[in-house]
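Trying the structure run again after the queue cleared.
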Amino acid sequence: MSSIVASLPDFPRVRRYAPGLLLSALLAALAALLSQWQPLSQLGLSALTLAIALGMLAGNSIFPALPAQTVAGVDLARSTLLRAGIVLYGLRISLQDIAAVGWPGLLIGMLMLALTFVIAVHVGTRWLGLDRQTAILIGAGSAICGAAAVMATQPLVRGEEHKVSIAVATVVVFGTLAMLLYPLAYPYLGLSQHAFGLYAGSTIHEVAQVVAVGQSIGPEAANAAVVEKMLRVMLLAPFLLGLSLQSAAANRATASFRTCCAQVHIPWFALLFIAVSAVHSLKLLPTALVAVLVQLDTLLLATAMAAMGLRTRIASLRQAGLQPLKLGLVLFVFLAVGGYCINRAIAALV
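Done. Tokens:
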């Protein structure tokens, strides 16, 4: 790597950021390749989860021995590239996705997001003694879209790298468990393929995991599951805006409402996420360009995840103990059982 850096133009910014960015990008590329390997793809392990795993492996072995000049690029990857990746994530969804599942799918998605997140914060902080940052990150990952939601929430709560890694670990563990159990449970749930797809899409953590479960049942289940999951992803932006407003209100409990609103730090990347989704909905971009940008987005997010892994220390994870996994288990049970009840109740109303 040192020879590559030496060949770069003698621009201060390039030389400052290139080594860390290059290291993070290489790990991300490796994760993307591994995610296409059938044994791993069947487990629903996306490039994002593999990237943070590879990053943690390198971060606790070779990274501490690398020159200090790699740190700046790694930190840039886990901040600026992360936000850029969240913005481009809007190209994966559209307003038509909501229309495809109708108001029942939207209502299910909103209920699951709100209830899962409230349970995560309440149980995590009051019963399990977790700090609020960790509880929020685990709640966001379980309630919305796994690792991508954890990463999008991290800047708002200023979560440390090891807390992000903990939250992503719960997504991997219990999302994988859902992939194994949901297809086995399908014959006993009394759901049509479409209804099962809505159930899976509204309760399983990662997009890749939802796709794997839906496809194991049938095409109708897969289509409904992916659309419902994309709808949950679309709810990420209003969730971030609401979280920003709530955080500002909590920090200024004695301030007036006008003063509180004036000091809210609106996450610009959430607004751009909505804008990109709207542009995608209007089909203003060529299909080929969208496909390229989605691949670029995967690389950006995987690079950010690899960078977070590089800055995570195993010792910090050990200090967290079993409490985060206990919270992940509580949320998994609620998503599986409570989500089934909510899906059946709304289906009965329809």
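The radius of gyration is 20 Å. Worth checking whether this holds up in the mutant runs.
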